[in-house]
Design brief:
It is a single chain. Strand 11 and strand 12 form a beta hairpin. The protein has a single domain, classed as Glutamine Phosphoribosylpyrophosphate, subunit 1, domain 1 (4-Layer Sandwich). It starts with a helix and ends in an 8-residue tail after the last strand. The chain has 559 residues and is of the alpha+beta class. The relative contact order is 0.17. It is built from 19 helices and 17 strands. The strands form four sheets. Strands 1-9-10-2-3-6 form a six-stranded antiparallel sheet, covered by helices on one side. Helix 3 runs parallel beside helix 5, helix 13 packs across helix 16 and helix 13 crosses helix 17. The structure holds 6-diazenyl-5-OXO-L-norleucine. 6-diazenyl-5-OXO-L-norleucine (DON) binds next to loops.
């Protein structure tokens, strides 16, 4: 029997049970999905010690900093989507990195105005001022039930005693030229991550004593353990000695931003997601708003693929025209999320053929002017939830580890636009609204998201650079089809981002017949020949009183 027959019963059942108390119920047990079993374990340990989802989130994030040093860490930043059950309140902690005060729009350009190869990706100029340490402290103090020392203890132990290398670690190190580059250009990083100059074997233990000391300092002193005093001095000295721009004031002045999440509706599903400076959440809502105008349940498979791809294209078109850090530039967010705007975007969709991106003009404001990442999802038994996507950007970030600190610095300055029309590492085309300015946050794609119906609550997110919003879109559509997290995280993926005007796809995403049909509609297909992303999803099914967690078996090997 098709799901279409089943769905009304599920809905009716949900409403009926809801009226007798589903809304008041609590999750039967806590649930955590993260990219590494040791990080998930750290979270459960904290829950067992009496911590809530917020404490567990701090423990998971800190443990990921140790066991996935190539992906996220205290040298980076990210977005935390929180639901406080007690007040039925959703909020976002924006711990995105900021550009140092000496940064400028043309800092990565040569005299001819051309980007200097690699400068926004490697070395200290690539690094923004980190936000993750501030977020760990703030979340513990404001929302946690345990102390910072308790929440950081599992990570400190993993750093001090070491953790066993897995396949993901080896893969990250073999990404592109990482392994050689660290050894040739970044000896302080190589000493830690490539011990004895050899690719570590699976099972080999990596000890990070400096990082253990740094985390201990944070545990003992809170924010000033990282952003002031000896550690801040070590960070600034090393960055400046290698030609970077950080100052002690940049660190001392770092501000977390507490933001209202973006909220949207797709059918009966309430979507709560990440606001600017992430372009991810508005992208997800734009795609859903566009798709809302079609009956996806009553079209052929190819028509469904076509409509979804066009929605992806249009959302990324908007990104290239309208989005930047809204603390610095004007963004018409209400208009972008309106039904009228979605209807206008839909006018660009032809039902039987692809709309070339070249036909979608770039707005005048877009004129020239001037695996890293890890997601985890948690639900606790009080009904609190956390979805956090944290990153140092590209695998092993900027490569810079200020000696004695164990902190691997991010390369998130690359998420700014170097120059209008210039693509970054994710082939996202730059535009003036996202140009570098002192204290500004670079646009992101990271988008921890809640999907909420009367009877189900999901926490979803993934790494994957510009592909993050389209991965989450596909997962949300599967949620809408009543599938479970194991399905959301494993379903084959495809992606379009306006420019380049190609459909990238995983090996199993389209049958040969579908590929032929899509090509006949005018799509340029780009098989990736591999899978991407690392989705971590949790679900609380209130009707059946069950919780689910699903971890993607993929690790994002990006290029
Ligand atoms: O903020 C962003 O959108 C990117 N820096 C995220 C990087 C990422 O997801 C890399 N993952 N493989």
């Amino acid at each position: 029997m098709s799901y279409r027959w089943l769905q009304p019963w599920v809905v009716i059942f949900g409403i009926w049970v809801g009226s007798v108390g589903v809304a008041q119920s609590l999750p039967p047990q806590p649930v955590i999905a993260s990219a590494h079993p040791l990080a998930t374990q750290a979270g459960y340990t904290i829950l067992q010690q009496g911590g809530n989802a917020f404490d567990a989130a701090v423990a998971v994030a800190a443990a990921l900093a140790v066991v996935e040093p190539y992906a996220s860490g205290i040298g980076g930043g990210g977005f935390w989507l929180l639901h406080e059950a007690q007040y039925n309140k959703d909020l976002v902690i924006d711990g995105r990195e900021v550009a140092p005060m000496a940064a400028s729009a043309d800092m990565f350009l040569d005299e001819a105005g051309e980007p200097i190869a690699g400068m926004s990706l490697y070395g200290p100029k690539a690094a923004g001022i980190p936000g993750t340490p501030a977020a760990l402290v703030y979340i513990t103090e404001k929302y946690g039930q345990l102390t910072l020392a308790e929440n950081l203890a599992p990570a400190i132990e993993l750093a001090r005693n070491g953790f066993a290398v897995g396949e993901d670690y080896r893969n990250a190190l073999q990404q592109g030229d990482k392994y050689q580059r660290l050894q040739q250009q970044f000896p302080a990083a190589a000493e830690i991550f490539v011990p004895q100059g050899k690719l570590p074997a699976v099972g080999q233990v990596i000890v990070q004593s400096d990082l253990a000391n740094t985390l201990t300092l944070l545990a003992e002193q809170g924010r000033r353990g990282f952003y002031a005093g000896t550690l801040a001095q070590q960070l600034v000295d090393a960055v400046q000695a290698q030609g970077g721009l950080w100052t002690l004031a940049d660190l001392a002045d770092y501000q977390l931003k507490i933001r209202e999440p973006l909220v949207g509706q797709y059918g009966s599903i309430k979507i709560v997601t990440t606001p600017l400076p992430s372009a991810g959440g508005v992208g997800i809502l734009t795609m859903l708003n566009v798709l809302q105008g079609f009956d996806l349940a009553n079209v052929t498979e190819v028509e469904r693929n076509h409509l979804i791809i066009e929605a992806m294209r249009l959302a990324f078109w908007d990104r290239s025209r309208y989005l930047g850090d809204a603390d610095f530039v004007d963004v018409p967010m209400n208009r972008l999320l309106s039904a009228e705007h979605a209807a206008q975007l839909r006018e660009h969709i032809k039902l039987d053929q692809a709309t070339p991106s070249a036909q979608l003009s770039v707005a005048p404001m877009d004129t020239p002017k001037g695996h890293s990442t890890s997601h985890f999802s948690i639900i606790d038994t009080q009904g609190n939830r956390v979805g956090a996507t944290l990153s140092i950007n590209y695998f092993f970030g900027s490569g810079v580890v200020p000696p004695g600190t164990g902190v691997l610095l991010n390369n998130h300055m690359d998420d700014f636009a170097m120059k209008a029309g210039q693509a970054n590492v994710y082939q996202l085309v730059g535009h003036a609204l996202n140009e570098i300015a002192p204290g500004k946050r670079p646009l992101s794609s990271m988008a921890p998201t809640f999907a909420i119906t009367e009877d189900r609550i999901a926490v979803i997110g993934t790494p994957g650079g510009s592909r993050i919003p389209t991965m989450i879109l596909l997962a949300l559509l599967a949620f809408a089809d009543d599938q479970l997290p194991a399905y959301w995280v494993s379903l084959p993926r495809y992606h379009h981002q306006y420019l380049p005007d190609v459909v990238e796809y995983e090996p199993d995403a389209f049958s040969e017949w579908q590929q032929n049909e899509l090509q006949a509609m005018g799509y340029v297909l780009k098989p990736l020949g591999r899978r991407y992303g690392n989705m971590q999803a949790t679900l609380w099914d209130k009707v059946n009183q069950r919780v689910y967690a699903a971890s993607d078996e993929r690790r994002d090997l990006f290029l």
